[in-house]
Amino acid sequence: MYTKAVKDGLIEYSPLEYGLIKGVIMKNRLLAYMLITALFLLSTLTPVQAFAGSEPVVYAAASAADMENIIFTAIKNREEAFKISYDGNTDDIMNEIKQARSRAVQRDPYEEGCISLVSGFSVSSSSGHADIFFDSFKYHTTKEQELFVDRKVQEITASIINFRMSDYQKEKAIHDYILQNVSYDNTLSGYTAYSALYNGLTVCNGYVQLAYRLFNAAGIENMIVKGIYDSRDHEWNLVKLDNNWYHLDCTLDDSASATGQMQSYKYFNLTDSKIRITHEFDSGNYPPAVTEFKPDKTEVTSYAGTAIPSATTGAIQLPGPEETVEINSFARVLQPSDKVWTLKFNQAIDFRTVNDLTAFVVDSSGNVAKGVTFKKGPQGNILLVQPPAAGYESGKSYCIYILKGVVSGKTKGLEKALKILFTIK
Length: 425
Hints:
It is a single chain. The termini are far apart. 24% of the residues lie in helices and 26% in strands. The protein has nine helices and 27 strands. Strands 1-7-8-5-4-3 form a six-stranded mixed sheet, with helices on one face. A five-stranded antiparallel sheet has the order 15-14-13-12-16. The chain is elongated, with a radius of gyration of 27 Å. By secondary structure, it is α+β, with helices and mostly antiparallel strands. This is Transglutaminase-like superfamily protein. InterPro entries: CAP/Cytokinesis_protein (IPR052557), Papain-like_cys_pep_sf (IPR038765), Transglutaminase-like (IPR002931). The chain crosses the membrane at residues 30-52. Keywords: Membrane, Transmembrane, Transmembrane helix. It comes from Ruminiclostridium hungatei (Clostridium hungatei).
C-alpha cells in the first residue's frame, strides 16, 4: 500500500508504580479497528475517508499543529490505529511527526498516564504530501471507562466541594476523600483513576490521576511530578494555593494512614526542601515550591484599596486587650464559645451590602456556621460578628469571611476577600 515506507521504532510507556515497573515492548502490527464516527472527534479534525471493516479512519492535516491535535484527539478517544493524510512541507517530515507525537503525548499528564504503549509510525512521502500511519497505541483504559471517570469526578466534586470553601479546604477535602475511599493495590495491577474509582484499588499513578482530575474539577491548578521514592519510580501532585506551589503525595499519606490507623498529612503541602528528604525529582521541570504552608493564608489586609490602619502583613489589630488575631493561620489564642468579634474598617461601610452572600462564618469542615449574625457597631466603620445563641462548638476552628460585595459609603468594595481564622476553647 505504501512505497518508500520508513518504520519508526516503538516507544514503550510503562505505568509508574509504587514498587515495580511493568512493561512489554510489542512488535509493530496492524490491529483490527472498528469504524469510529465523527461524533467522537473534535469538530476541527475531520476524516477525509472512512475505510470499511478493519481499516482505520484517515484524517487530513496541513501543518505540524494539525498533526499534534489529531494525535491528541486519537489518544483521548483511545484509538489504537489511525492514518493522517498530510499536505504541507515534507522536507523534515520524520522529525515533524516525532515532535508532533511527543507534544501530543505530553500535552495532558492525565492522558499521558493512561498510555501503556506509544505507537510507532510508517510514512510514505513525496514533495508536499505524506501518508502517515500510526498502528499500535495501547491504553490502560477504554473510552467507556473514561466516561465513567468523568461522571464520578463530577459526582464526587458536587458532594465534597462547595463554593464557599477556600482552595485549601477544597484540597484537604479531596485529599481526605481519596484516603478514605482508595487503597493501595498490592497486586500492582490497577494503574488508573478508573481503577481507583471502580475497584477502590490502585498504585501511585492512579492516586495521582484521581487527585489531578478532582483538583481540576475544583478549580485548583496542579501538576503531576515524576520522580523517585525509595529508589523506585514514583509520582505525586504539585498544587497551587494562594500563588504558592506545594507537594502533595496521597499515595504515601494513604500508606501512613493504613499503618498508623489515623488520617495522615505527613506528605501534605510540602516545600521542595522537605519533599527532597524522601523524594527525588528534577526541579527544572516544575515551578519552585519554597513557601512554608500555613492553612488558609489570607488574601488581603485592606479595605477599599487602602490598608487597614491597625493592620500589619498577616494580622489585624482589633479593639480591646489581647484582641490580635493571626489571619495567616488558625488563631493561636483559644477563644471563648461566646466570642463577639469587633471588626473596625478605615471607612464607614454600607450595611445594606452585608448579607448572607457577602459575610458569613465557615467551620473547618467547610460548612456555614448557623446562627451567626453580623450587626452594625456603635460607629459606621465597625462591624460586630455575634456568635450563635448556643455559642461556637468547643475545640472547633472557624473562619470569618467578608467578601468583596461589602462596600463603603463611597461604593468602593474590598479589593479582595477578608478572612479571619479562630479556634474555640
